[in-house]
Design goal:
CATH topology of the largest domain: Rossmann fold
Low-confidence stretches: 1-7, 53-60
Order of helices and strands: EHEEEHEHEEHHHHHHH
Largest sheet: 5 strands, parallel
Distance between the termini: 36 Å
Strand content: 5-15%
Helix content: 40-55%
Number of strands: 7
CATH architecture of the largest domain: 3-Layer(aba) Sandwich
Radius of gyration: 18 Å
Number of helices: 10
């Protein structure tokens, strides 16, 4: 067994909570975001959304319910005054219409509409330590930053690069790959690779790509990281 890390945040390290939608985002936060932000003096702690409580009192994790429930969880995190900030990593695709601004988002582009919903969430929580972030249009969109790494990261998928690249070339940014049920990023992957499993393959592919390349291709994601770096 490997030696357990004894690293703990020092008094000078800034604590950051990131409220995430599920296990994939939690793993992405731990494996890619945490080491990067730690080098900036920021200690990241991902918190998975609690979907429901079962009879024995244990909580199932992952997925989003109506906004009032998410708001309660975010407010509980904001009560921790030792935290420098509380952020989110939630998919814009499938975000419940009960979220502020989501039922009728304003803006000409997907970036404008995502920012509108984020700002609506910020206004609703009314806490300057809250940094809302919505992934466009979902986690799998980030993977289209590198069709080559997508193909290489899928078992037996080495010959799929051209198909992933064809999708990528239709959009200026991977974040613009749209959010309809039949054309959302994850569905496009499933159409090409039917055995795709988000928790198994998603973070492995993201690790192959690396944060630098994702940031080059995904301006909304990159802007969020820039904000976190400046805490």
């Amino acid at each position: 067994m490997g030696k357990k890390s004894s690293w703990r945040p020092s008094l000078k390290v800034k604590k950051l909570f990131i409220f995430v939608e599920g296990q994939t985002e939690e793993k992405f936060s731990k494996e890619l975001l945490l080491p990067y932000l730690r080098s900036k003096g920021i200690f990241l702690q991902p918190i998975i959304s609690t979907t429901k409580v079962v009879k024995d009192g244990k909580n199932f994790k992952g997925g989003l319910g109506p906004y009032p429930k998410t708001k309660k969880e975010l407010c509980n995190l904001l009560k921790d005054k030792s935290a420098r900030a509380v952020s989110t990593m939630l998919d814009y695709y499938g975000l419940p219409k009960s979220f502020p601004g989501r039922s009728n988002p304003e803006g000409q582009t997907c970036f404008d509409r995502a920012k509108f919903v984020e700002q609506s969430m910020l206004a609703d929580l009314n806490d300057e330590r809250f940094i809302p972030f919505l992934t466009l249009h979902e986690f799998e969109g980030l993977l289209f930053s590198s069709p080559a790494d997508m193909a290489a990261g899928l078992p037996g998928g080495q010959n799929l690069e051209a198909q992933f690249k064809l999708i990528r070339q239709q959009f200026e940014s991977p974040e613009e790959i749209n959010d309809q049920p039949s054309t959302a990023p994850h569905q496009r992957i499933l159409n090409i690779y039917p055995t795709y499993q988000k928790p198994t393959f998603g973070v492995a592919i993201a690790s192959r790509i690396g944060l630098e390349k994702i940031r080059e291709q995904c301006p909304h994601f990159s802007g969020w990281l820039t904000t976190l770096e400046q805490l």
